[in-house]
Specification:
Blueprint lengths: L16 H22 L7 H4 L9 H18 L9 H6 L22 H21 L11 H24 L26 E4 L2 E5 L18 E5 L2 E4 L5 H9 L11 H10 L7 E4 L2 E5 L4 E3 L10 H15 L3 E2 L3 H11 L27 E2 L2 E2 L6 E7 L24 E5 L16 E4 L6 E2 L3 E2 L14 H12 L2 E2 L2 E2 L1 H13 L6 E5 L5 H17 L4 E5 L2
Parallel strand pairs: 11-14, 18-19
Antiparallel strand pairs: 1-4, 2-3, 4-15, 5-6, 6-7, 8-15, 9-10, 11-12, 12-13, 16-17
Length: 539
């Protein structure tokens, strides 16, 4: 039996607070239920503890993680006085989700039983239910409102509904079973020939206003960016399995000339010779879905990581003589507006938000103007590494949601997939993954005279961090004695015998001057029996 329609992310406006409270309560329970229903596809407790892939925790972690997220954020926001299970709320707090493809972390954890985690989830459900029912609610709900934290927890669980479904798809078949709530599409036929559609030049503004959020949003969606795109052409359809087969049969995976250095390194390490979810069965191809293998549906979108999509575009450019590449974020937004897709989730027909079957479907099913699948079916990889819009600010309750991805190693993808729900389904959302990761993601290509514009990130890259650490903790830098230490010593000498109560180091970076000041403050306080503190403030 097909589940009831999955509720969309709620609007944050309205006049009836009790009606909005009931809507959020229904939204919470529907999300909690659907997430637990996903784990019903596992065949045994063993399936929870065997890693589907080396780069991620086993599924028991993700079963507990979304529940502990609620508790940790509610405590941090002051909406909950005490924790339910501090051990779980530490163990399940942080997932190993963003690492290099060759970082084979095999750390061992003393995981609790499935029944223990299931019971914990029920305690969390009751706690969040009580807070939604009893906490004061005013409309509209804004960035600093307590109910923003409730919505943060719900939207976070919807993200993991999708990412956990990918891990289940990567699990061994013996660990999963068919489920009526997760039945895939059974429709397939000949793949349509792709064609190029002209997208006219456009000017528009991206970014959301924190004072008028309309729906819940993550920090990277707010701020502003003035966009301008020249006319370009975009493929009518997402690249289908059939269209991608030509690249495979042409030896695209063996031709390192088509792969930039990072992509070639991943391909050679992974020994990739075809898309990850393709399975060679004698002379035939099959496709791994979430819970089963099926004969290859050639008219469905191919699913790849960024590296494979990039190599295909390079091959297509060489074969056609055209400037073929992936679209930028600005170009994707231009074609979205050209297709008439609204900024927020609407009623546009699409394989999105679990509104259809639990899988991809043919690329020619959902038309959006002259294009197909502008939103939905599979995510679409972009050429743009995620970067902060002007006026970007982190949310104080989730200050590391986006900033770790501002490293020029995480590329945006847009449009959402068949299982993208809530905030994920909004075209204004900005999700990014490491380029070697797999999601339910494919791509469409563009032909454009203009090269892809790359926006520099204002946050930390590995190189920048390494340089800062050397600058702060090395003996010298560029032949100059350690500057932060020397600066702190000058400040201490200038202070002389004055009391060293507190010091604030503005723009402290990796903190050497702060530690030097703290050492002096501590020794001075010890001698005088005074309180002391040295602090660090930076952005």
């Amino acid at each position: 039996m097909k589940p009831a329609p999955f509720p969309a992310t709620p609007l944050l406006t309205g006049a009836d607070t009790e009606q909005k409270r009931r809507q959020i309560l229904d939204y919470f329970h529907a999300t909690f239920d659907r997430y637990e229903q996903l784990f019903e596809v596992l065949t045994s407790d063993e399936a929870y503890y065997v890693k589907p892939i080396a780069l991620r925790h086993p599924l028991i972690f993700y079963f507990g993680h979304t529940a502990t997220f609620f508790i940790n954020k509610l405590v941090l926001a002051g909406l909950l006085a005490q924790r339910i299970n501090p051990g779980f709320e530490s163990m399940f707090a942080i997932g190993v989700d963003e690492m290099s493809w060759d970082d084979l972390n095999d750390q061992r954890y003393d995981w609790p039983s499935v029944d223990e985690v299931r019971a914990y989830r029920q305690s969390v459900r009751a706690t969040v239910d009580r807070i939604i029912r009893t906490n004061s609610l005013t409309l509209p709900i804004g960035w600093e409102d307590p109910f923003w934290i409730i919505l943060m927890g719900i939207e976070h669980e919807r993200i993991h509904l999708e990412t956990s479904s990918v891990l289940i798809r990567q699990h061994q078949l013996k660990y999963v079973q068919k489920h009526p709530a997760w039945a895939p599409c059974r429709d397939s036929g000949p793949a349509p020939e792709n064609a190029l559609i002209v997208i006219p030049a456009a000017e528009f503004r991206l970014g959301r206003d924190r004072s008028d959020p309309k729906i819940y949003g993550w920090d990277n969606e707010f701020g502003h960016h003035e966009a301008s795109t020249a006319a370009f052409q975009a493929s009518r359809y997402l690249v289908s399995n059939r269209e991608f087969l030509a690249f495979v049969e042409a030896g695209g995976y063996a031709d390192d000339a088509l792969w930039p250095a990072e992509g070639a390194a991943w391909k050679n390490f992974a020994k990739a010779a075809h898309p990850t979810f393709w399975i060679k069965d004698g002379t035939q191809w099959r496709l791994r879905l979430m819970l089963e293998e099926v004969a290859m549906p050639w008219d469905w979108p191919v699913e790849t990581n960024y590296h494979e999509a990039k190599a295909f575009c390079n091959w297509k450019a060489r074969e056609s003589g055209l400037a073929v590449r992936l679209p930028t974020e600005d170009e994707w937004q231009a074609l979205r507006q050209f297709a008439g897709i609204a900024e927020l989730p609407d009623e546009a027909p699409a394989n999105l938000g679990l509104s259809q079957e639990a899988s991809s479907c043919p690329v020619n099913r959902f038309a959006h103007g002259p294009l197909f699948d502008v939103i939905g079916n599979v995510w679409q990889w972009l050429e743009t590494p995620i970067y902060p819009f002007a006026s970007f600010e982190v949310h104080p309750i989730y200050d590391d949601f986006t900033t770790p991805t501002f490293d020029e190693r995480h590329n945006l993808f847009k449009g959402g997939s068949w299982i993208s729900c809530g905030n994920e389904a909004a075209p204004v959302s900005r999700y990014a993954f490491r380029r070697h990761f797999f999601q339910h993601a494919g791509f469409r290509y563009v032909v454009a005279d203009a090269p892809a514009t790359q926006h520099a990130s204002h946050y930390e890259t590995d190189r920048l961090i390494s340089e800062y650490i050397e600058f702060h903790y090395g003996d010298e830098y560029f032949g100059v004695a350690n500057f932060p230490k020397t600066l702190a010593q000058l400040a201490i000498e200038t202070m002389g015998d004055k009391p060293a109560h507190r010091a604030l180091d503005l723009g402290c970076a990796t903190g050497r001057a702060t530690f030097e000041l703290a050492r002096h403050s501590a020794s001075s306080a010890s001698a005088r029996n005074w309180p002391n503190r040295a602090g660090c403030a930076t952005r």
